[in-house]
Write a structure and sequence with these properties.
The complex is a heterotrimer of chains A (548), B (168) and C (239). With 548 residues, chain A is α/β, with parallel strands linked by helices. Chain A folds into 4 domains: 3-120, Glutaredoxin (3-Layer(aba) Sandwich), CATH 3.40.30; 145-348, NADH-ubiquinone oxidoreductase 51kDa subunit (Rossmann fold, 3-Layer(aba) Sandwich); 358-441, Ubiquitin-like (UB roll), CATH 3.10.20.600; 446-547, de novo design (two linked rop proteins) (Up-down Bundle). Chain A is built from 23 helices and 14 strands. Chain A has helices at residues 3-18, 30-33, 37-50, 94-103, 117-120, 138-143, 148-156, 159-169, 181-190, 211-218, 220-234, 248-263, 294-301, 330-342, 344-348, 381-388, 422-427, 446-460, 466-483, 489-505, 509-513, 516-533, 542-547; strands at 22-27, 57-62, 74-77, 84-86, 111-112, 197-202, 238-243, 279-284, 325-329, 358-365, 371-376, 398-403, 409-412, 436-441. In chain A, the strands form 3 sheets. Chain A has a 5-stranded mixed beta sheet with strand order 2-1-3-4-5, covered by helices on one side. In chain A, strands 11-10-14-12-13 form a 5-stranded mixed beta sheet. A 4-stranded parallel beta sheet of chain A has the order 8-7-6-9, with helices on both faces. Chain C has 239 residues and is α+β, with helices and mostly antiparallel strands. Chain C has 6 helices and 10 strands. Chain C has helices at 25-31, 83-99, 114-121, 157-166, 201-205, 227-234; strands at residues 7-12, 15-20, 55-58, 65-66, 77-79, 138-139, 145-148, 171-174, 181-184, 211-213.
């Protein structure tokens, strides 16, 4: 199939879709699905039949619409009407929804205001199809420019031209560390080998992060297309998606997507009649956070314990089964097709000087609008928490926002006006991480938060290197004592010393970053540690001085 | 132990082993298939006992200690059968901030069972998950596959009692 | 087609030395009598890089690198010791001593223990962290040897020698993190192992009093390692 032929197919599908007067979309991503939105969709279909609208209405089960706290979400596009979104729709509401399609009148009680900042302030690249298309229907993806970038690349562009677009775009890895994707691919492209691998890291393990899950469940073909483009640019022949076994829905949708993409020759041998061949297989993770680390992930795909090994050599030289390999995060790969389609310059025009494009965040914790958002890099924390997130519930006051999960930190009010990008977060003592953003109010105790993350690191440590294996245990013990009010100033000094040792001597990223939550809470909320240790030992006012 | 030219047969003629065998073949019948094979065994038999681990070791020609090492490294795998009912408590950050610990404490008090354990009467297994991805519903639990969001300790104990008493 | 291995010049502790690019910093340093302390490393076994004792500073690299796993490159400038590295080595040893029950006075390896020697060398004279005092079993089921988990440092030398040299792969690690421990077969008592050949190589390479010969009293367990380079040489194996 040539790019033009694909364009014709897409146009045909669009026209067919436009000929249907009414469209109902029901969110069946994880959060809404857990509130039985699949049954809701069935019920709406049945009710539409009742009112005689089933023939000219298309009901789709779609991916994440974002505002999880108001789920299940349903959007209705009735003939000649502006699309309306409904929130907290239950099975009992199905007749009302069907009726509104028939009458063209809104169900006022259920309307979700899409002009609110939560929706209006977002900019969607990665999630452009989320909540719009049916993940299991490849035609929905094709009708929305799907596989256009891949077909154009393999028939009209040289591999290095694809690479150039990615480099020009300034795309950085969305898994946490922010390594430039163009550079990573370049390393792989330059390593000579007949066998090279592209791995999609979908082992999203940060507690409080569900961006990758939503992308996989809402728009799986986007990941396949991103991987195929990566393979074409770097000369890779085989791909693996390493996905958490805890995400059964994502796995199911990926399997369907791979099957349909292969059937339509977007994957497999001689894709689109060209010389380019690339296939993708799924490997299941098994509950080990450390497998997000590249070398541990490779060990896991090889069927071993997920223990990291020292780098260098980097996977680009020696990766899966000793062959050159590039490992990219889900969200990174989700950006690839739009970049190739619209050009690197377009992407580079969004975001800040050094952090290009958008970032998907999972907003959770003590915040009114919990859910999934995509915003341009550089938007301030205040805009995210208060405008998009709708502020703190129950009349409580904001205290801190945690980014970067167990490798990140807690940022206090004084940093609310900081623009969110890789570098500013790092300077402030946190990291971008994969995109979990947990808001805490004044009722949260920061020593307890630090202990929570240390407990996480301790039980997720693979146990290979001494500093991480024993250091996280000892730091957790110290935090326990301090949190229970039994700590001393010596304990605090020891804790800070261990933070340095573990950060600088651990083998992999998990150990090296495990002290971050402690360090950032010590930096901004040291007085909470001191208050717990013993008020008497602190000279008056010293708490503040140390904290500032 | 693996013997040369030994024909390696499944531990029993249970049909489920045929499904496991398909997984093994699809993944190249070698050590690289170890984790996928363990997933398949656990999916069909519920847990991994010594008999199953020994068979997997022989079938894939992987040392027994390596199979055991992999099976115990990953928290998704379990070597013991679970209880009649399971309650998975999400312990992601959002759920923790919103009181997941109170849920775990409440179950520990009433059923004397901690995450990763099964109650003595075999009725209830409590598991803790790192993040269910249902942060919008925090704190969330999954009882026998059903997600319950925004749940408090009292309500959880009521639901559990109902579930357990239902089959009595 | 085999790759041409180049000879490179590098600087280790202000001394200009030459080595092959397929040799590690540790190998080249030892060839030139520059001492770098190690624990999990053992000449003749594959590198593992877990103990972090041999960490060295390489100019231009922000992180410390394990000398046992980092290959030489042209113009590399290595510092094997500075105040920071010394302090880290001491801290790592403290962590290790706090992890299990290392009580030298009652140990058969007292006086011939690599962990003890390392502590002396690095000046680790006390442990400022609370001891964990875990309760570990002593596996005496084997008729020749004993495995005292209380003394194990998880260096995995036993696992590697059994896998790479003996070819039996009796040992491996089970569980993870602070709960990681060495097992034989499917966590069976050593004496019941179907795969163990009773060769004793694991006992000889164990750095502490974890794997020992039965019938040895306090301070009597001395280990012999000469077989390892010998076996490697006889098999034409340079790994």
């Amino acid at each position: 199939m040539t790019p033009d032929e694909l364009m014709d197919v897409a146009q045909g599908l669009q026209e067919k879709d436009a000929s249907i007067p009414n469209h109902v979309r029901v969110c069946t991503a994880a959060s809404c699905l857990s509130l039985k939105s699949d049954e809701l969709a069935k019920q709406i279909k049945a009710e539409l039949k009742e009112v005689g609208k089933d023939k000219d209405t298309k009901v789709r089960c779609v991916g994440c619409m974002g505002l999880c706290s108001a789920g299940p979400l349903v959007s209705v596009e009735a003939e000649d009407q502006k699309p309306v979104m409904y929130q907290k729709v239950t099975v009992e509401n199905a007749p009302q929804i069907a009726e509104s399609v028939a009458s063209g009148k809104k169900v006022k009680d259920l309307v979700c205001d899409t002009d609110s900042p939560f929706f209006a302030r977002q900019q969607k690249i990665v999630l452009e199809n989320s909540g719009i298309i049916d993940a299991d229907d490849i035609n929905d993806y094709i009708a929305n420019d799907g596989y256009q970038a891949l077909m154009t690349a393999i028939s009209e562009m040289q591999p290095n031209e694809v690479l150039d677009e990615i480099t020009k775009s300034g795309l950085r890895g969305r898994g946490g560390a922010g390594f430039p994707t163009g550079l990573k691919w370049n390393m792989l492209a330059k390593t000579p080998s007949d066998t090279k691998y592209i791995i999609c890291n979908a082992d999203e393990g940060d507690p409080g992060a569900f961006m990758d899950r939503a992308i996989l469940e809402s728009d799986p073909h986007r990941i396949l297309e991103g991987m195929a483009l990566a393979a074409y640019a770097t000369g890779a022949t085989e791909g693996f998606i390493y996905v958490r076994a805890e995400y059964p829905l994502a796995i199911k949708r990926l399997k369907t997507a791979i099957r349909l993409a292969t059937k339509n020759n977007f994957l497999g041998s001689n894709i689109g009649g060209t010389k380019f061949s690339f296939s993708i297989d799924i490997r299941l993770g098994a509950g080990a956070f450390v497998c997000g680390e590249e070398t541990a992930l490779i060990a896991s795909i090889e069927g071993k314990r997920g223990q990291p090994r020292p780098r260098p050599p980097f996977p680009a030289e020696k990766g899966l089964w000793g062959q050159p390999t590039s490992i990219n995060n889900v969200e990174t790969l989700a950006n690839v097709a739009p970049i190739v389609r619209k050009g690197g310059e377009w992407f580079a025009s969004i975001g800040t000087n050094k952090s290009k494009g958008t970032k998907v965040f999972a907003l959770a914790g003590k915040i009114n609008n919990t859910g999934l958002i995509e915003v341009p890099m550089g938007l301030s924390l205040r805009e995210i928490v208060f405008d998009i997130g709708g502020g703190i519930p129950d009349g409580q006051e904001f205290k801190a926002v945690q980014t970067g999960g167990p490798s990140g930190g807690c940022l206090p009010e004084e940093h609310l006006d900081m623009g969110v990008d890789y570098d500013s977060l790092r300077t402030a003592g946190s990291i971008m991480g994969s995109g979990g953003m947990i808001v805490m109010d004044k009722t949260s105790n920061m020593v307890d938060v630090a202990r929570f993350f240390m407990e996480f690191c301790m039980s997720e440590s693979c146990g290979k290197c001494i500093p991480c294996r024993v250091g996280t245990y000892q730091m957790h013990e110290l935090l326990n004592r301090i949190a229970e009010g039994e700590g001393t100033m010596e304990d605090l000094a020891k804790l800070e010393e261990l933070c340095e040792v573990v950060a600088n001597t651990s083998l992999c990223g998990l150990g090296q970053t495990s002290p971050n939550p402690v360090r950032s809470t010590l930096r901004y909320f040291r007085h909470e540690y001191l208050e717990l240790i013993d008020g008497k030992h602190i000279p008056a006012g010293a708490g503040q001085e140390v904290a500032s | 132990m693996i013997m040369p030219n030994q024909k390696i047969a499944p531990p029993s003629d249970d049909k489920r082993w045929k499904v496991v065998e398909t997984t093994i073949r699809r993944n190249g019948s070698s050590s690289g298939a170890l984790i996928e094979t363990l997933h398949s065994v656990q999916e069909w038999f519920g847990y991994l006992d010594d008999e199953a681990l020994t068979y997997v070791a022989q079938r894939l020609m992987v040392p027994m200690s390596k199979v055991y090492g992999v099976a115990t490294f990953y928290h998704f795998f379990t070597l013991k059968p679970g209880g009649k009912h399971t309650c998975v408590v999400c312990n992601g950050t959002a759920c923790y901030i919103k009181g997941a610990k109170q849920l775990i404490d409440a179950m520990a008090e009433k059923y004397d069972v901690k995450p990763g354990e099964t109650s003595k009467d075999g009725e209830l297994s409590v598991l803790s998950a790192r993040c269910l991805g249902s942060c919008g519903l925090a704190p969330a639990v999954v009882i026998d596959g059903d997600v319950k969001g925004n749940i408090e300790a009292d309500e959880l104990l009521n639901v559990l009692e109902g579930v357990i008493n239902n089959d009595a | 087609m085999s790759k041409v291995i180049r000879v490179v010049t590098l600087t280790i502790d202000d001394q200009e030395v030459t080595g092959r690019e397929d040799e590690t910093i540790l190998t080249v340093a030892r060839q030139h009598d520059i001492d770098i302390p190690t624990l999990c490393f053992l000449e003749g076994l594959s590198g593992w890089g877990s103990c972090r004792i041999c960490l060295v500073a390489v100019e231009g690299v922000p992180k410390l690198l394990p000398a046992c796993m980092t290959y030489c490159s042209e113009g590399m400038v290595v510092h094997t010791e500075n105040e920071q590295i010394k302090a880290y080595r001491k801290s790592i040893l403290e962590l290790l001593f706090s992890e299990r029950n290392h009580i030298c006075s009652v140990c058969v390896s007292n006086g011939a223990c690599e962990l003890q020697a390392l502590a002396q060398k690095c000046g680790m004279d006390h442990v400022s962290l609370p001891y964990r005092f875990p309760s570990y079993e002593v596996d005496s089921s084997h008729n020749l040897f004993r495995n005292d988990h209380n003394r194990c440092v998880l260096c995995t030398r036993c696992i590697r020698v059994c896998d790479e040299i003996e070819g039996a792969h009796v040992w491996d690690l089970a569980d993870r993190g602070i709960n990681a421990h060495v097992i034989s077969d499917l966590n069976a008592p050593w004496g019941d192992s179907e795969t163990c050949t009773n060769c004793g190589k694991c006992v000889q390479v164990c750095p502490t009093g974890a794997l020992v010969q039965k019938g040895t009293a306090v301070a009597e367990m001395h280990k012999r390692r000469a077989f390892l380079p010998y076996l490697n040489a006889m098999r034409g194996n340079h790994g």
